[in-house]
Amino acid sequence: MLLKGKIALVTGASRGIGAATALKLAKHGADVAVNYNNSVEEAQKIVDTIISNNGKAISVKANVFDQLESERMVAEVEKQLGKIDVLVLNAGANFKMAPFMEQTWEDFENKILREVKGSYWTIKAVLPSMIARNTGSIIIISSGLSRNPGYGFSTHSTAKSALDGFARALAFELGPVGIRVNVVAPGLTLTDATKFMPQAHKEAIANNTPLRKIGLPEDVAGAILLYASDETKHITGNYLPVNGGQIML
Ligand SMILES: NC(=O)c1ccc[n+]([C@@H]2O[C@H](COP(=O)([O-])OP(=O)(O)OC[C@H]3O[C@@H](n4cnc5c(N)ncnc54)[C@H](OP(=O)(O)O)[C@@H]3O)[C@@H](O)[C@H]2O)c1
User: In which residue ranges of the chain is pLDDT below 50?
Assistant: First the structure.
């Protein structure tokens, strides 16, 4: 029970890594707000699972790329659960996977702006209460592709690198007031977002990974739990790859 008494908000928690994170944080005692944008039934299933395991959870709808919706989401969570101690910025922006010369400026701009807004507005709304209480753990979900490029992923690498820089800047500014900001960078993880990838390609990646498997959402959730908990209370501005050793820093 690493998070007993804590309140957590996980964005994009209806499916994939976010859903596994909501379940993991709740299992460790946090009251959890499950943000979703479209998947109302999936979000409710996560909430029901937490409640049936004697936890506390609510679902909250918001498109986190939108300022007003993000502000409303945070206000709703504070009203229903209380001040947020752990903020996981997991909802990412989809993008066109294509070689750079097939990308337009609009493809780039669209991805970068949505990716950064998805963290920016929610962090802005949560910070006043964290600053007032001199506590908080913020975890931004980046990607291994922010540091190690992949063919066709230039928009994604650029946008996630912006998040990495944002996290370091915030960790530097907010450390003195007791707030930690860290990055978790998953490698290929089996979720809806990676369903399009041929099985043979996934197997090839697994065979070239020291731990010989592709990541599962709960693998990433385990790393997020560590940053969320006080066990890592002297770690901030860090970047944690979760990739079975495929890329080592
Ligand atoms: N899977 C991978 O291999 C991998 C690797 C590296 C990094 N990542 C990163 O990990 C994060 C989660 O990825 P995933 O693979 O778990 O994705 P996923 O399975 O496709 O799930 C996406 C989640 O994000 C939510 N979402 C999308 N846009 C949203 C918005 N505007 N506002 C609120 N919620 C929104 C979706 O909610 P609704 O369905 O309700 O709209 C859903 O719950 C992303 O930041 C991604 O870039 C993933």
Answer: none
Please give all residues whose beta carbon lies within 6 A of any atom in ligand 1, as ranges.
Answer: 11-18, 35-39, 63-65, 90-92, 141, 143, 186, 188-189, 191-194
CA of 55 to the centre of ligand 1 (A): 24
Instruction: State how far the Cα of 157 lies from the Cα of 148, in Å rounded to an integer.
Output: 8
Q: For residue range 222-236, what is the model confidence (pLDDT) as tens digits?
A: 999 999 999 999 999
Specify the pTM. Answer: 0.98
Please provide the DSSP assignment of 21-52 as one string: HHHHHHHTT-EEEEEESS-HHHHHHHHHHHHH
Q: What does the block give as tokens for 84?
A: 């947020």
CA distance 163 to 150: 18
Q: Closest ligand 1 atom to the C-alpha of 193?
A: 20
DSSP per residue, 70-118: HHHHHHHHHHHT-S-SEEEE----------GGG--HHHHHHHHHHHHHH
Q: For residue 131, how far is its CA from the centre of ligand 1 (angstroms)?
A: 28
**Which domains does the chain possess?**
7-189+217-239 (3.40.50.720)
Structure tokens given for 238? 């860090």
pLDDT digits (tens, 9 = 90+) for 14-50: 999 999 999 999 999 999 999 999 999 999 999 999 9
Alpha carbon nearest to ligand 1 atom 2, residue: 189
176: CA distance to ligand 1 center in Å? 31
